[in-house]
TrEMBL record:
<dbReference type="InterPro" id="IPR050736">
    <property type="entry name" value="Sensor_HK_Regulatory"/>
</dbReference>
<keyword id="KW-0812">Transmembrane</keyword>
<dbReference type="InterPro" id="IPR036097">
    <property type="entry name" value="HisK_dim/P_sf"/>
</dbReference>
<dbReference type="InterPro" id="IPR004358">
    <property type="entry name" value="Sig_transdc_His_kin-like_C"/>
</dbReference>
<dbReference type="InterPro" id="IPR005467">
    <property type="entry name" value="His_kinase_dom"/>
</dbReference>
<feature type="transmembrane region" description="Helical">
    <location>
        <begin position="108"/>
        <end position="127"/>
    </location>
</feature>
<dbReference type="InterPro" id="IPR003594">
    <property type="entry name" value="HATPase_dom"/>
</dbReference>
<dbReference type="Pfam" id="PF00512">
    <property type="entry name" value="HisKA"/>
</dbReference>
<dbReference type="GO" id="GO:0005886">
    <property type="term" value="C:plasma membrane"/>
</dbReference>
<dbReference type="InterPro" id="IPR003661">
    <property type="entry name" value="HisK_dim/P_dom"/>
</dbReference>
<keyword id="KW-0597">Phosphoprotein</keyword>
<keyword id="KW-0418">Kinase</keyword>
<feature type="domain" description="Histidine kinase">
    <location>
        <begin position="179"/>
        <end position="380"/>
    </location>
</feature>
<feature type="transmembrane region" description="Helical">
    <location>
        <begin position="12"/>
        <end position="29"/>
    </location>
</feature>
<keyword id="KW-0808">Transferase</keyword>
<keyword id="KW-0472">Membrane</keyword>
<keyword id="KW-1133">Transmembrane helix</keyword>
Length: 383
């Protein structure tokens, strides 16, 4: 029922008019002398509600449900006449119909409603012989209804424009990420080919340098694949993982080979533990956490991998100043940058990959520093 479009508009009107029908039934207890009229009003309300809820309004175009407003005004006029010219309930529902229309239709439809709405309000009052002062209330009610409707329409239009603008920005961002991830592969393939050629004839310290270059080129290629996967998370809401059992100590050791040799990073991992994860994604999580710890914290950075009753636990702790309180609510959000102590996209990626594994990401305070903790379900078959 919530949302925009012909179907949502019709359903919202259906609920509104059914409520009006229920109020007509309640009115029977207050005015038993007009039971037949009130039953007629309730029947009209319920019939109109069923039409609004059941018809395929999408086939009638964007503004098709606007006709429901006209029929709604007619039923309100019938209700006023049924209550003997008492418009205490008609006025509020007339404004509600205008508010509903303002959420879904442009101003010209609201302006076109003015005459039928005024007639629906005045004609029953005239037929029941109401005092001129009562008739004059239309000159107060209708401008108020129009003003409220125009204000709601302007705000709704503003929000729709903002949503369309954000949608275009998101499409541009996704296209840029996809283009970057695809286009970086060709030059990387050339770089890796050059490294492989040089490796065959390299001697002395050059062997180590070329090996480091090849590892970093391979890492960039995996990051490009990761960008594509993260783009798929945004569009499809899930990420396909290639899980298997891996020795935790070996996984951490391989990931640390990409860290600069001068970085003070220490690993404390039991060699007997096995973790059931996607190897590439686990490495991506760990490297992102280490990068953040080195950039925003202070050494030493301690990497731990343990197992307890809740599952496997990866912890990366620094010994820096910790996380500012104002940053905590958005720590794992996209582009959560807050000046020099901000955190970028890396932690959002970590959270998405943790959730894809069935785990979660959290930040735990330490004295000093902070520990980024990622939990994973235990390997299948293990307690």
């Amino acid at each position: 029922m919530l949302g925009t479009g012909p179907r949502a508009a019709a359903r919202q009107f259906g609920v509104l008019i059914v409520v009006a029908g229920l109020l007509a039934l309640v009115g029977i207890s207050n005015d038993p002398t007009h039971i037949s009229r009130l039953l007629l009003v309730a029947a009209c309300d319920f019939s109109l509600g069923l039409i609004a809820l059941l018809l395929p309004w999408r086939r009638l175009g964007r503004y098709g449900p606007a006709v429901l407003g006209l029929t709604g005004f007619a039923v309100l006029g019938l209700s006023t006449w049924s209550f003997g010219g008492v418009a205490a309930g008609t006025g509020p529902f007339l404004v509600l119909i205008y508010a509903w229309a303002a959420l879904h239709f442009p101003r010209w439809i609201l302006a076109a409603y003015a005459i039928p709405a005024t007639l629906a309000y005045l004609v029953p009052l005239v037929l029941t012989g109401q005092h001129p002062l009562v008739l004059g209330s239309a000159f107060v009610l209708m401008p108020i209804a129009l003003a409220v409707a125009f204000l709601i329409e302007a705000q709704a239009r503003h929000l729709r424009d903002d949503r369309e603008r954000l949608s275009r920005i998101e499409q541009w961002r996704a296209a840029m990420i996809n283009t970057l991830a695809h286009d970086v592969r060709a030059p990387l393939a050339t770089v890796r080919l050059v490294f492989e050629e040089l490796q065959e004839t390299a001697t002395g310290p050059h062997v180590k340098m070329i090996g480091a270059g090849m590892r970093q080129a391979a890492r960039i290629a995996r990051l490009a694949d990761g960008l594509l996967d993260l783009s798929r998370i945004d569009s499809a809401g899930h990420l396909k993982l290639d899980r298997a059992d891996h020795p935790a100590h070996a996984l951490v050791k391989d990931a640390l080979s990409y860290v600069h040799e001068d970085a003070d990073v220490r690993a404390e991992v039991d060699e007997s533990l096995t973790v059931h994860v996607d190897k590439q994604r686990f490495e991506q999580i760990l490297l992102n956490l280490i990068t953040n710890a080195l950039r925003y914290g202070r050494p030493p950075v301690i990497v731990k991998f343990t197992r307890d009753t809740t599952g496997d636990r990866l912890e990366v702790r620094d010994h820096g100043p910790g996380i500012p309180d104002e940053l905590r609510p958005r720590l794992f959000g996209q582009f959560a940058v807050g000046g020099e102590q901000g955190v970028g996209l890396g932690l959002w990626i970590v959270r998405q990959l943790a959730v894809a594994h069935g785990g979660h990401a959290a930040a735990e305070a330490r004295d000093p520093g902070v520990a980024m903790v990622i939990t994973f379900p235990p390997p299948p078959g293990q307690p």
